[in-house]
Amino acid sequence: MFHVLVGWTARILVSFSRFALFRRLSLLVRLTLVALLGIAAAGTASAQDRRQNTPGEFDFYVLSLSWSPSFCEEASERGSEQRSQAQCGGRPFSFVVHGLWPQYEHGFPEYCDRNSYLDRNIMTSMLDLMPAPGLIFNEWKKHGTCAGLGPRPYFETIRKARAAVKIPPEFLNLSDPKTVTPSEIEEAFIKVNPGLSDTAISVTCNRTRLSEVRICMSKDLQFRACEELERRGCRRDQVTMPPVRGG
Protein backbone atom coordinates (compact mmCIF):
# COMPACT_ATOMS: atom_id res chain seq x y z
CA MET A 1 0.00 0.00 0.00
CA PHE A 2 2.84 2.34 0.89
CA HIS A 3 4.44 1.77 -2.52
CA VAL A 4 1.12 2.58 -4.20
CA LEU A 5 0.83 5.85 -2.27
CA VAL A 6 4.38 6.75 -3.16
CA GLY A 7 3.66 6.04 -6.83
CA TRP A 8 0.54 8.21 -6.80
CA THR A 9 2.37 10.99 -5.02
CA ALA A 10 5.19 10.87 -7.55
CA ARG A 11 2.78 11.02 -10.45
CA ILE A 12 0.93 13.96 -8.87
CA LEU A 13 4.21 15.82 -8.33
CA VAL A 14 5.26 15.16 -11.92
CA SER A 15 1.88 16.42 -13.13
CA PHE A 16 2.20 19.58 -11.06
CA SER A 17 5.74 20.01 -12.31
CA ARG A 18 4.59 19.68 -15.93
CA PHE A 19 1.70 22.08 -15.29
CA ALA A 20 4.05 24.62 -13.75
CA LEU A 21 6.44 24.18 -16.65
CA PHE A 22 3.52 24.59 -19.07
CA ARG A 23 2.46 27.77 -17.31
CA ARG A 24 5.99 29.12 -17.45
CA LEU A 25 6.24 28.23 -21.12
CA SER A 26 2.84 29.79 -21.78
CA LEU A 27 3.95 32.96 -20.05
CA LEU A 28 7.17 32.94 -22.06
CA VAL A 29 5.22 32.49 -25.29
CA ARG A 30 2.85 35.31 -24.38
CA LEU A 31 5.74 37.62 -23.52
CA THR A 32 7.47 36.72 -26.78
CA LEU A 33 4.31 37.47 -28.76
CA VAL A 34 3.93 40.82 -27.02
CA ALA A 35 7.55 41.65 -27.84
CA LEU A 36 7.11 40.64 -31.47
CA LEU A 37 3.94 42.71 -31.75
CA GLY A 38 5.81 45.65 -30.28
CA ILE A 39 8.57 45.23 -32.85
CA ALA A 40 5.99 44.98 -35.63
CA ALA A 41 4.25 48.12 -34.41
CA ALA A 42 7.55 49.95 -34.26
CA GLY A 43 8.31 48.74 -37.77
CA THR A 44 4.98 50.04 -39.00
CA ALA A 45 5.59 53.37 -37.33
CA SER A 46 9.06 53.61 -38.86
CA ALA A 47 7.62 52.64 -42.26
CA GLN A 48 5.41 55.69 -42.01
CA ASP A 49 7.18 58.91 -42.71
CA ARG A 50 7.76 61.16 -39.72
CA ARG A 51 5.91 63.88 -41.63
CA GLN A 52 2.87 61.59 -41.91
CA ASN A 53 -0.17 63.57 -43.07
CA THR A 54 1.44 66.99 -42.68
CA PRO A 55 0.10 69.01 -45.64
CA GLY A 56 2.76 70.00 -48.14
CA GLU A 57 5.50 67.84 -46.66
CA PHE A 58 6.10 65.01 -49.13
CA ASP A 59 8.72 63.94 -51.67
CA PHE A 60 7.05 63.61 -55.06
CA TYR A 61 3.78 63.11 -56.93
CA VAL A 62 2.29 60.14 -58.72
CA LEU A 63 0.13 61.07 -61.69
CA SER A 64 -2.35 58.24 -62.14
CA LEU A 65 -3.94 57.87 -65.59
CA SER A 66 -6.86 55.45 -65.75
CA TRP A 67 -7.75 53.57 -68.94
CA SER A 68 -11.40 54.63 -69.09
CA PRO A 69 -12.70 51.76 -71.29
CA SER A 70 -11.54 49.21 -68.68
CA PHE A 71 -13.26 51.15 -65.92
CA CYS A 72 -16.49 51.29 -67.90
CA GLU A 73 -16.46 47.59 -68.76
CA GLU A 74 -15.97 46.75 -65.10
CA ALA A 75 -18.80 49.13 -64.16
CA SER A 76 -21.04 47.39 -66.68
CA GLU A 77 -20.17 43.97 -65.25
CA ARG A 78 -21.01 45.21 -61.76
CA GLY A 79 -24.30 46.67 -62.98
CA SER A 80 -23.22 50.17 -61.94
CA GLU A 81 -22.73 51.70 -65.39
CA GLN A 82 -25.64 54.10 -64.91
CA ARG A 83 -23.89 55.63 -61.92
CA SER A 84 -20.81 56.13 -64.10
CA GLN A 85 -22.71 57.72 -66.97
CA ALA A 86 -20.60 60.89 -66.99
CA GLN A 87 -17.53 58.84 -67.87
CA CYS A 88 -19.14 55.86 -69.59
CA GLY A 89 -21.70 57.61 -71.79
CA GLY A 90 -21.15 58.49 -75.41
CA ARG A 91 -17.97 60.55 -75.10
CA PRO A 92 -14.89 58.59 -76.28
CA PHE A 93 -12.55 58.83 -73.30
CA SER A 94 -9.21 57.01 -73.45
CA PHE A 95 -6.84 57.83 -70.58
CA VAL A 96 -8.42 60.03 -67.92
CA VAL A 97 -6.84 61.44 -64.79
CA HIS A 98 -7.51 59.38 -61.70
CA GLY A 99 -5.47 61.63 -59.48
CA LEU A 100 -2.24 63.38 -58.55
CA TRP A 101 -1.02 61.82 -55.32
CA PRO A 102 1.60 63.22 -52.94
CA GLN A 103 4.05 60.46 -51.97
CA TYR A 104 6.86 59.77 -49.53
CA GLU A 105 9.82 57.68 -50.60
CA HIS A 106 8.09 54.95 -48.61
CA GLY A 107 4.36 55.28 -48.14
CA PHE A 108 2.10 58.25 -48.69
CA PRO A 109 -0.06 60.74 -46.80
CA GLU A 110 -3.84 60.80 -47.03
CA TYR A 111 -6.82 62.72 -45.65
CA CYS A 112 -4.64 65.51 -44.30
CA ASP A 113 -7.65 67.76 -43.66
CA ARG A 114 -10.98 65.97 -43.47
CA ASN A 115 -12.83 69.23 -42.92
CA SER A 116 -11.64 70.89 -46.11
CA TYR A 117 -14.32 71.96 -48.58
CA LEU A 118 -14.16 71.82 -52.39
CA ASP A 119 -16.18 74.40 -54.28
CA ARG A 120 -18.50 72.86 -56.86
CA ASN A 121 -17.29 75.31 -59.53
CA ILE A 122 -13.76 73.92 -59.18
CA MET A 123 -15.16 70.41 -59.53
CA THR A 124 -17.01 71.19 -62.73
CA SER A 125 -13.92 72.87 -64.21
CA MET A 126 -12.08 69.50 -64.03
CA LEU A 127 -14.66 67.29 -65.70
CA ASP A 128 -12.82 67.31 -69.02
CA LEU A 129 -9.86 65.52 -67.40
CA MET A 130 -11.60 63.70 -64.54
CA PRO A 131 -15.10 62.90 -65.85
CA ALA A 132 -16.72 61.91 -62.55
CA PRO A 133 -17.84 64.44 -59.92
CA GLY A 134 -17.56 61.93 -57.07
CA LEU A 135 -13.99 61.10 -58.07
CA ILE A 136 -12.97 64.77 -58.03
CA PHE A 137 -14.43 65.40 -54.57
CA ASN A 138 -12.79 62.22 -53.24
CA GLU A 139 -9.41 62.99 -54.78
CA TRP A 140 -9.37 66.39 -53.15
CA LYS A 141 -10.32 64.99 -49.75
CA LYS A 142 -7.92 62.02 -49.81
CA HIS A 143 -4.93 63.37 -51.74
CA GLY A 144 -5.32 67.06 -52.54
CA THR A 145 -5.46 68.10 -48.90
CA CYS A 146 -1.95 66.67 -48.48
CA ALA A 147 -0.37 68.74 -51.26
CA GLY A 148 -0.09 71.92 -49.20
CA LEU A 149 -2.02 73.84 -51.86
CA GLY A 150 -5.46 75.33 -51.89
CA PRO A 151 -8.14 73.58 -53.96
CA ARG A 152 -7.76 75.73 -57.05
CA PRO A 153 -3.91 75.62 -57.16
CA TYR A 154 -4.01 71.86 -56.58
CA PHE A 155 -6.32 71.19 -59.51
CA GLU A 156 -4.32 73.60 -61.64
CA THR A 157 -1.29 71.46 -60.78
CA ILE A 158 -3.19 68.37 -61.92
CA ARG A 159 -3.90 70.07 -65.23
CA LYS A 160 -0.22 71.01 -65.64
CA ALA A 161 0.90 67.47 -64.77
CA ARG A 162 -1.47 65.98 -67.29
CA ALA A 163 -0.29 68.43 -69.96
CA ALA A 164 3.30 67.36 -69.27
CA VAL A 165 2.54 63.76 -70.28
CA LYS A 166 1.95 62.88 -73.92
CA ILE A 167 -0.33 59.90 -74.60
CA PRO A 168 1.05 57.51 -77.26
CA PRO A 169 -0.99 58.08 -80.43
CA GLU A 170 -1.86 54.40 -80.81
CA PHE A 171 -3.91 54.62 -77.60
CA LEU A 172 -5.89 57.78 -78.36
CA ASN A 173 -8.53 56.33 -80.67
CA LEU A 174 -8.31 52.62 -80.07
CA SER A 175 -11.15 51.11 -82.08
CA ASP A 176 -10.54 47.41 -81.36
CA PRO A 177 -9.45 45.48 -78.27
CA LYS A 178 -5.67 45.43 -77.98
CA THR A 179 -3.60 42.80 -76.17
CA VAL A 180 -0.25 44.08 -74.97
CA THR A 181 2.35 43.41 -72.32
CA PRO A 182 2.76 45.89 -69.45
CA SER A 183 6.29 46.63 -70.65
CA GLU A 184 5.00 47.49 -74.13
CA ILE A 185 2.68 50.09 -72.61
CA GLU A 186 5.55 51.56 -70.59
CA GLU A 187 7.82 51.62 -73.64
CA ALA A 188 5.15 53.40 -75.70
CA PHE A 189 4.94 56.18 -73.08
CA ILE A 190 8.71 56.41 -72.74
CA LYS A 191 9.09 56.73 -76.51
CA VAL A 192 6.90 59.86 -76.76
CA ASN A 193 7.91 61.49 -73.46
CA PRO A 194 11.56 62.62 -73.45
CA GLY A 195 13.11 62.25 -70.00
CA LEU A 196 10.70 59.54 -68.89
CA SER A 197 12.48 56.30 -67.93
CA ASP A 198 11.30 52.84 -66.95
CA THR A 199 12.07 53.67 -63.31
CA ALA A 200 9.47 56.47 -63.34
CA ILE A 201 6.48 54.62 -64.78
CA SER A 202 4.39 51.66 -63.74
CA VAL A 203 1.34 49.87 -65.13
CA THR A 204 -1.45 48.41 -62.99
CA CYS A 205 -4.03 45.86 -64.06
CA ASN A 206 -6.83 43.66 -62.83
CA ARG A 207 -7.13 39.98 -63.77
CA THR A 208 -7.25 40.65 -67.52
CA ARG A 209 -7.41 44.37 -68.31
CA LEU A 210 -5.15 47.38 -68.15
CA SER A 211 -6.21 49.57 -65.24
CA GLU A 212 -3.82 52.50 -64.97
CA VAL A 213 -0.53 54.01 -66.00
CA ARG A 214 1.21 55.75 -63.10
CA ILE A 215 4.02 58.22 -63.58
CA CYS A 216 6.25 59.68 -60.89
CA MET A 217 6.91 63.41 -60.98
CA SER A 218 8.83 65.82 -58.79
CA LYS A 219 7.07 68.70 -57.09
CA ASP A 220 7.95 70.84 -60.10
CA LEU A 221 6.43 68.15 -62.36
CA GLN A 222 9.61 66.68 -63.82
CA PHE A 223 9.79 62.93 -64.35
CA ARG A 224 11.67 61.16 -61.56
CA ALA A 225 12.44 57.61 -60.45
CA CYS A 226 10.35 55.86 -57.79
CA GLU A 227 11.23 52.24 -57.11
CA GLU A 228 8.37 51.57 -54.69
CA LEU A 229 5.81 52.27 -57.41
CA GLU A 230 7.28 49.58 -59.65
CA ARG A 231 6.94 47.00 -56.88
CA ARG A 232 3.18 47.54 -56.93
CA GLY A 233 2.96 47.18 -60.72
CA CYS A 234 1.11 44.67 -62.89
CA ARG A 235 2.59 41.15 -62.91
CA ARG A 236 0.49 39.77 -65.77
CA ASP A 237 2.25 38.61 -68.92
CA GLN A 238 -0.37 40.37 -71.04
CA VAL A 239 -3.33 42.69 -70.52
CA THR A 240 -6.25 43.69 -72.67
CA MET A 241 -7.07 47.29 -73.53
CA PRO A 242 -10.80 47.46 -74.37
CA PRO A 243 -11.54 49.86 -77.23
CA VAL A 244 -12.44 53.48 -76.70
CA ARG A 245 -16.21 53.88 -76.62
CA GLY A 246 -17.36 55.51 -79.78
CA GLY A 247 -13.84 55.05 -81.18
Question: How would you describe the overall organization of this protein?
Answer:
The protein is α+β, with helices and mostly antiparallel strands. The protein has two domains: 1-47; 60-241, Ribonuclease Rh, Chain A. Helices cover 43% and strands 15% of the residues. It is built from eight helices and six strands. The chain has helices spanning 2-47, 68-78, 85-88, 120-125, 133-142, 151-163, 182-192, 227-231; strands at residues 60-67, 95-103, 178-180, 201-205, 210-217, 239-241. Strands 2-1-5-4 form a four-stranded antiparallel beta sheet. Strands 3-6 form a two-stranded antiparallel ribbon. Strand 4 and strand 5 (210-217) form a beta hairpin. The model is unreliable at 1-6, 12-22 and 31-47 (pLDDT under 50).
The best one-word shape is globular
Amino- and carboxy-terminal Cα gap: 99 Å
Rg computed from alpha carbons, rounded to a whole number of angstroms: 27 Å
Architecture (CATH level 2) name of the largest domain? Alpha-Beta Complex
Tally of helical segments: 8
Briefly say what this structure is.
By secondary structure, this protein is of the alpha+beta class. Helices cover 43% and strands 15% of the residues.
Name some characteristics of this structure.
247 residues; alpha+beta; Ribonuclease Rh, Chain A; four-stranded antiparallel beta sheet; two-stranded antiparallel sheet; 43% helix; 15% strand; globular; disordered N terminus
